[in-house]
Amino acid sequence: MARPDELVFAPLGGVGEIGMNLSIYGLGNRHQRAWLAVDLGVSFGDEEHLPGIDLIMPDISFLEKERKNLMGLVLTHAHEDHFGAIIDLWPKLQCPIYATKFSAALFEAKCAAERNAPNIPVTVIPSGGRVDVGPFNVEFIPVAHSIPEAHALAIHTEAGTVLHTGDWKIDPTPTLGAPTDEKRLRELGEEGVLALIGDSTNAVRDGRSPSEAEVARTIIDLVKSAKGRVAVTTFASNVARIKAVAEAAKAADREVVVVGRAMERVVQVARETGYLDGVQNFRSPEVYGHLPQDKVLALCTGSQGEPRAALARIANDDHPEITLNRGDSVIFSSRTIPGNEKAVGSIINNLVLQGVEIITDRDHLVHVSGHPRRDELRDLISWVKPQLLIPVHGEALHLHEHAKLARAAGVPRVLVCRNGDLVKLGPGDPGIVGEVPSGRLYKDGTILEDSKSRAVVERRRMAFSGCAFVAIAMTGQGELADDPEVDLVGIPEKNRAGETFDDIVFDAVMSTIEGLPKARRRDSDALAESVRRAVRAVINEHWGKKPPCLVHVLTV
Fold it and tell me: What sequence ranges are listed for the domain Metallo-beta-lactamase (predicted)?
C-alpha cells in the first residue's frame, strides 16, 4: 500500500522574533512536495545595529528553488509584518496570491503609491470563504484584530487540518468588523484539528486583552474634555481606532484633519470597502490653521517615532501646515514597539518642551493590543482541541510561555521550533525532521542585500569606528612620488595629548613606507597591506578603536 502524503511546516520568518512573518506548508514526500506560503512580511531596521537599512525581509531562496511546486501565497491580514515584503519578493516567485477584500484593496493602494511596483494580481476570497490552492483547501475564519478582515486559516488536507491563527484576539465588542468566530472554531475542534500554529505575542500577559469598545469610550472622554487643539496618533492600519477618533471628534464638535500619507491611504481604502460608512468626511491639512483651536483634531501618522512621519515633523516644528502649542494635547493611541522607545521618547520630549500635554496608555486606556493574552489562548485551545501546538509569532520567551501554557492546558504534543526547521505535522508522530534554508534580506535603498553583504557589515563597522583613507603615489623604482594623502572620517580630531590624528596617521604611513625594503615597496598589494595594518594599529593605540582602513596605491 502506498504511504500517505506527509504534511510538513516550516517557518521562514516570524519565529524567535516579532515581525517578518512567512510560513510554508508542504504536502507530499521528501522527493516532491506541493507548497503553500502564508504571509510575506517585513520587520524594520534598527539604525543602531543596521545603519541605513529600512526593511528586513525573509530569505526566500528555498521557495525560489521550489517555485514550480509553490501553489500560492495566502494572506491572513494586511499588516506590514505580514504582507510588506510582497512587492519586493513576489517577482522572484510569481505565484497566485489570495486575500480578502480589504487586504487586497490596501495592497493595491500600496502598489499604486510605490514607484515602479510590478503588476501583482490578487484573487479576492470572501471572509468565511474557502479556496482550493493545489492540494490545500484554505478556509478564511474571521478573527478580531487591530485591522479589518484579519483571518485565521484552516488549512484542510488529506493528512489533516491545521489551524494557522495569524494575529488574533477575542474581542466580544469590536467597534468594527466581526468578532472572532467562536462557533466555527468549535466546529473545527469537533471535526478534528491536527495542529494549531498559534500567535504567541502576549503569551506572557495574564488575563484578557481589553476591548476596542473600552478604548473608544476613553478617547471620547479625553477629546471632549480637551481645551486646545488635539492630535491623535495611532497605527494607520487600525481602522477601528480611526473610526473611534472620528466619533470622539464628532461628539466634541471638532473637525478631523488627516495628516500623513499612510493614514490618508488607509482612510481612502476603508471608505471604498465600506468600513467608514456613516463616518463624517475628513479634512486635509491645508484647512488646519483656519479652524478654531477647540474645533480641530489632527489624526497623525508617526506613533512609532518614524523620523519622516507627521508627528516627528510636528514635534520638530518643521511641518508645513500643522503646529501645536502650549495647552494642546497629543494622545498616543498605540503601544511603542520594542526598539522604537528612543525615537518615541525623543518626540514626546520635544512636544513637552513646547508645552503640549501628552496622554499615553500609561495614564489612560487609549490603546489595547490586537493579540491574545493567556486566558484567550486557553479558550482557543479548549475550542479547537489540537493534537499538536506550535507557538509562533514571538521571541524566545513568548514561545516558551505559550508552550508551557499549552502543556498545562492538556495539549497532547507541544513543539517549539526555530526559523528554518522543517516540522512533520502528520501522519504519525510529529517532530523536526530537517532544515530548509532561511535567513534575512536587507532592503538597502532600492537594493536587496543578504545579511552577509559587504555593504551592511562595513557600514556597521564604520558607524562604530569611522574609516581611514590613505592614497599613496609610488614611482616604478619604489620611491614616493609625492606626500601620501590621508583622509579620516568619523575619527576624533585629536588624541588625549592634543596631537592631531591626521599627523599621527601621516607619520605612521611615512615610517611604514620608509621601513619597507624596495622590493616590497614596488609590490602595490604588499605595500597597501603594510600601511593598512600600521594605520589601524596606531589609531587603536591612541583611541582604543580599530577603524576600517582603505589604502590606494598608484604607480606613476
Answer: 21-219
